[in-house]
Amino acid sequence: MYLHHVAAYLPATVVPNDHFTRLNGLASDWIIERTGIRERRRAAPDENTNTMAIAAAERVLREAPGIETADIDLIVGATYTPHDTIVTVAHAVQHALGVADIPVVSISSACSSLLNAVEIVEGYFALGKARRALVITSEHNTAYNNEHDTMAGHLWGDGAAALLLCADKLAPTDLRVDEVVTAGAATVGKATTSVTLKPVERGIVMPHGRDVFQYACQYMTQVTQQVLTRHGLTVQDLRWLIPHQANKRISDVVLRNTGLPPERLVSNVETLGNTGCAGAAIGLADTLPGLQPGDRVVVTVFGGGYSYGAMLLTRE
């Protein structure tokens, strides 16, 4: 399986930390020290999870060499902030692209949903049921967020990304998907209460941030080392590590735990905030153009609930 192209969509509105200083009295330096976040994006009133997903999908198809919209035979959507739980993000993208009679499915495993979506594509490819797939990650966090929440209200941003995956190599710039590993960790710590989003109640709530921090660092380190070891590699063989973009301090701990040099970390949380399962995909979109033959990338993720995973990519 190959990653042919990645493209991102970001809303135009930028929300700086000063917004939360005025709202809650949280100093910008305090937010930066604890999260690394300086600003984040907010969807416009006429935007939502589905519109951002469509914009990302249209962009990836517009930019991808040698692929037409009609070639797409599978769409997998990933989000924990749905605009519509019936007309899912995958259905919305199918409708916008006008590709009929193909499998469309949307899934959620919180912020780690990106890699679960890639695994679903892997399964369809292995069964011979598809050969050209779109994975769409899109989060409209601000639709659910309570900005007055001084524990987590300043963390969230909006954005989307689309990945075009193919069963065969189409271009020299394609990345080979060497392995995808995912797992649930709902049995540890405060997994089922640390981060919740109950739309009929209060939206996104994070009462146990320390627990999230601890297990995110542990599992992203563990699964990164696991996937490298299985391929006879070390972190020194990596060009980039792209972790889930939740908190710069988490990324820094994972970096130290793995022993990877700081200059090989991909981070966008400073300017985008936590964009959920779209964050690592957006980072991959930014990184893709600069990759050279022989470069390897690990994408590692962690989600509330809990769940985690890693994907090893190689530019042949």
Automatic annotation (TrEMBL):
The family database entries (Pfam families) matched by this protein are listed as:
ACP_syn_III, ACP_syn_III_C
Keyword set for this entry?
Acyltransferase, Transferase
Q: Where is the Beta-ketoacyl-[acyl-carrier-protein] synthase III N-terminal domain?
A: 107-168
The cross-references to SUPFAM superfamilies, in alphabetical order and at most eight, read: Thiolase-like (SSF53901)
Q: Which BP terms from GO are recorded?
A: fatty acid biosynthetic process; secondary metabolite biosynthetic process
Presence of keyword Acyltransferase: yes
In terms of InterPro entries, this protein maps to: ACP_syn_III_C (IPR013747), ACP_syn_III_N (IPR013751), Thiolase-like (IPR016039)
Chain ranges of the Beta-ketoacyl-[acyl-carrier-protein] synthase III C-terminal domain:
228-314
The Swiss-Prot or TrEMBL record annotates one GO molecular function as: 3-oxoacyl-[acyl-carrier-protein] synthase activity
Give TM regions.
none
Q: Which Gene3D superfamilies match?
A: 3.40.47.10
Write down the PANTHER family for this protein, in alphabetical order: 3-OXOACYL-[ACYL-CARRIER-PROTEIN] SYNTHASE 3, BETA-KETOACYL-[ACYL-CARRIER-PROTEIN] SYNTHASE III
Instruction: From the Swiss-Prot or TrEMBL record, give the protein name.
Output: Ketoacyl-ACP synthase III
